[in-house]
Amino acid sequence: MINVTVWNENRHEQKNPVVREIYPNGIHGVIAQFLMEDGLEVKTATLDEAEHGLTEEVLEATDVLIWWGHLAHDEVTDTVVERVKQRVLDGMGLIVLHSGHFSKIFKTLMGTSCDLKWREADEKERIWVVDPSHPIVEGIGEYIELDKEEMYGEHFDIPTPNELIMVSWFEGGEVFRSGCTYSRGNGKVFYFRPGHETYPTYHQPDVQRVITNAVHWARPAGRQRPVYGNAQPLEVIKDKDNH
Amino acid sequence: MINVTVWNENRHEQKNPVVREIYPNGIHGVIAQFLMEDGLEVKTATLDEAEHGLTEEVLEATDVLIWWGHLAHDEVTDTVVERVKQRVLDGMGLIVLHSGHFSKIFKTLMGTSCDLKWREADEKERIWVVDPSHPIVEGIGEYIELDKEEMYGEHFDIPTPNELIMVSWFEGGEVFRSGCTYSRGNGKVFYFRPGHETYPTYHQPDVQRVITNAVHWARPAGRQRPVYGNAQPLEVIKDKDNH
Amino acid sequence: MINVTVWNENRHEQKNPVVREIYPNGIHGVIAQFLMEDGLEVKTATLDEAEHGLTEEVLEATDVLIWWGHLAHDEVTDTVVERVKQRVLDGMGLIVLHSGHFSKIFKTLMGTSCDLKWREADEKERIWVVDPSHPIVEGIGEYIELDKEEMYGEHFDIPTPNELIMVSWFEGGEVFRSGCTYSRGNGKVFYFRPGHETYPTYHQPDVQRVITNAVHWARPAGRQRPVYGNAQPLEVIKDKDNH
Amino acid sequence: MINVTVWNENRHEQKNPVVREIYPNGIHGVIAQFLMEDGLEVKTATLDEAEHGLTEEVLEATDVLIWWGHLAHDEVTDTVVERVKQRVLDGMGLIVLHSGHFSKIFKTLMGTSCDLKWREADEKERIWVVDPSHPIVEGIGEYIELDKEEMYGEHFDIPTPNELIMVSWFEGGEVFRSGCTYSRGNGKVFYFRPGHETYPTYHQPDVQRVITNAVHWARPAGRQRPVYGNAQPLEVIKDKDNH
Asked: What's the CA gap between A36 and A125, in Å, rounded?
């Protein structure tokens, strides 16, 4: 059993009828739906809930957290960001989607600006698989094609990924590292690029499959956490001043 | 369902009563036993069988192959080595144990000499986990301690691992990268250091747990294989001589 | 010409006669000395100077910054930490020594706790080279042996290094990833473990050689920085609603 | 002083007047020319010379070897391939260009098929820099644009690069990992994609700059090679049967 919490800023859906029409139950709603259909245990949380819906209790009960944000990164309190970070270091998986590249939680875990090029021009994106051995692309063909998406272009200012799984081609001439894994402490992190709010990207079966696969990949390894601090020797240390 | 084939050279067991006493059913026997107890579908194969027990049919039906060899690496035919390599590139997982570092299949997949320092001196090995987020160390403590093992020491002439999961400390003063992952084509490879034939290493529960975890990690991703060769364009290419 | 700034907290030297005897001109003094002998242009800066000696002008003129701190990480102002971080992302090399693992600048660039095991027990450390191709170990033998050092042990809570160059063996039974490289934005980062203040570690020729090599490796690549933000297309994007 | 040997198959130049017009002194000729202008010590060698111009003496005196081949990979003798491989493991840098992806030496060092998609269609390639900190892209802008090139597309069946420095966008819809580094033993390897024989790619200043930078990056680290085989203990090993 994997417990997933889908977190969404949920602001575009309130303000923009185009977004509301595509995602009547919110971006979190459609993501929660396809994850539940995979048999996962799924809850949702949004920015405007108390503590953004991410209390200690909620995080403690979460194996994998999915994050979508864009307009209101600054409204996420530092307290909650620090809480999520500690939970990731403790083992919780984190899947950061699209404009979440600029979220406080992603930037603090990466240590870089996470900046990039972008453009909204109804252009084609073709996401190529470059690591065919990876479980995150199970069931995915050579590429995922999205007829209209926002462009994100290199240089993407992230640390070198542990694993680079997908690279996007954009009609306007750019490329982008679109599927990247990291480990942070006991936790695993996956960044997945597509998902601009005005396109039906999260209704696309291959996009759903990647996110579902990533949840399985990101579940915590069941083990005791490492011990830090002052440590007694495990072997006898010679007295160097008397031999 | 994961189909595992445990391959063993099975020569020490024939020649050396010390080894036979520790592994009366062969090293492959004990490995097959604990993998079956995990619910995996397990077969064994050994050097002296026809085609070393690794026919096209056997490999085609194998999701993960485990490899133990030492005395007779040169007796493994190039035909079988090439067959195993193609099957790994096609997606089969490969787990190489201990002295398998010098097997033809490991060397050809690595592209390096795979050489190292070694010593048989009944010394203590302590295998430290350095990537606590990895599924291969699920259920494992901060380290695995083996009271007596053969020493393998750096420099270990392997390509940089995709993931370095464990590092060994040896009583005689050396260190070693003991748990290393690679991807090769569609397949995953894991090298795990311990397992000298004159010690009961494969009876150790933590060692068994690592190998069992590695089988689950190394199973093939279910997807179509990439297409290579001449490719038609997916987009219109401009005629550059007329614009 | 490479301009190096050696930054030292310089507190142990004020408080502890043992440290002062080993480093009469401070840890920064001895490091600056051997770097100057290599022909580098070297300045020093310490915590108690105005802005810790790390003004915008100083950092702008610094190609590679070396960092030693321990007692007073919290006294480094967030303003200076952010300034150093931006300069690293802009291309400045950063070499973090020993107890600098817990400095604000290292933790913010890593995104993890950077915690570890430690022990002061006059024990032997043997630092093994595991990447013999790397320029940082030019001129270094198979290992560097330090008769007495503080122990740092795994798990070291850092992101997976871009390159793991050295691994330490400790007499008391632990191992440690002692030489680790990272890239962050346009800048390169190197963490090097040894250097407890009560031992003459920075007088050791091999330790000096590694730090000197690392300065050369970490110098900024001379190029324009990437451009971020809204980007015009480089190719014509089709009007999808009319074809 | 860095000694470079530029190896070229030199067959297209003999057979195809289009290629001969672009490269009247051969592809090796133009590469040798711009490397010499950088102050490097450069020699050339070609397939039809005795031992392909790669005798023990030549390789022993070579710090960095550049490799261009296409039509006649199979004519390179296994003896010479093995000799080059041993010299790379011993420390010599190797830069493999374009269709060299299918050379025996590259395939044996990689351990994979090195296969890819390809197309000759006079299409545009734009090579994006994804690691701006790397010395190989010193002096290079955000991308290199080539008006007409052969397309190489993913999946490129290589091991995960140690460092991924450049990714290509192609007009026809594909992407490709175009600048990849590896270490093999004591040696460094760089694969660089562009350079189809019917285009003037190696006359392009940015392409020349990348190859020149790569030569500097790939020079051998000056140090003793590691020692392998049976090793005496560096520390006293306890007699476990009597304590």
From this structure: 27
